[in-house]
Amino acid sequence: MKKAVIFDLDGTLANTLESIAYCTNRALKDHGFSVIEVERFKKFVGNGARMQLTRALREVGDREGTARLSEADADGFFTWPEHLEAVLASYMEYFKKDCMYRVEPYEGIPALLAELQKRGIICAVFSNKPHLNTVNVVETLFGRDCFAVILGQKESLKKKPAPDGIWKIMNELGLDRSEILYVGDSSVDMDTGKAAQVETIGAEWGFRDKEELLQHGADGLVCRPEELLNYL
């Protein structure tokens, strides 16, 4: 029997795409780059802000850097480190102020969370979004009493797909792997859940498609939030 559900945030609990696109595009413009259509950001997010901006710089035609001090994207692309650091700094400043820009919970999520609370299921969040922004978004949308643990990206914690965040939450709750359900919308989330050896469910309403979720080992898929109750 499951005693807790750990949720990803972006693309799972909330549609945050416009806030991410808005802040990234402002940062790109500040440094002389063109802006990117909002829908393209669905392929950029999931691996943290630094990788998101590496992918954005590639999208706008930034040349590959020879110093190779930045982290490579999935295709082995390295952007110029000085470009990445400048755009990242601007992005983080904008994101501090506007991380809630047009952010909304997905339809059915508030009702799902209420039902989980009614059933005595503990809820938690593990995201690659910076920790303070994660707390801000979650508490603004859902209040301070909905989630027992809210965990975003910190320097002291390996980001997803490393399983460390799930294990940390699991230890704080005093639960074992068999009692945890992890829910996310991307290959990063599926890889994270599998690495943590917990049952992992793909949310089809998020930023990635069904095929990606299945290819990365989803134990199940849900088209609507209420379907998650079938896995408890």
Structural class: alpha/beta
Separation, N- and C-terminal Cα atoms: 6 Å
The CATH architecture designation of the largest domain is 3-Layer(aba) Sandwich
Number of helices: 8
Strand order in the sheet with the most strands: 5-4-1-6-7-8
CATH class of the largest domain: Alpha Beta
Describe the main β-sheet briefly. Answer: 6 strands, parallel
The whole-number mean of residue pLDDT values reads 93
Instruction: Determine the CATH superfamily of the largest domain.
Output: HAD superfamily/HAD-like
Shape: globular
Unreliable stretches covering 5 or more consecutive residues = none
Strand content: 15-25%
What is the domain total for the residues?
Answer: 2
Number of strands: 8
Question: Nutshell version of this structure?
Answer:
By secondary structure, this protein is of the alpha/beta class. It has two domains: 4-16 and 103-231, Rossmann fold, CATH 3.40.50; 17-98, Putative phosphatase, domain 2 (DNA polymerase, domain 1, Orthogonal Bundle), CATH 1.10.150.240.
Structural notes for this entry:
With 232 residues, the chain is an alpha/beta fold. It folds into two domains: 4-16 and 103-231, HAD superfamily/HAD-like (Rossmann fold), CATH 3.40.50.1000; 17-98, Putative phosphatase, domain 2 (DNA polymerase, domain 1, Orthogonal Bundle). 39% of the residues lie in helices and 15% in strands. The protein has eight helices and eight strands, in the order ββαααβαβαβαβαβαβ. Strands 5-4-1-6-7-8 form a six-stranded parallel beta sheet, with helices on both faces. The chain has a two-stranded antiparallel ribbon with strand order 2-3. It is globular and about 55 Å long. The N and C termini lie close together (6 Å). The model has no long low-confidence stretch (mean pLDDT 93).
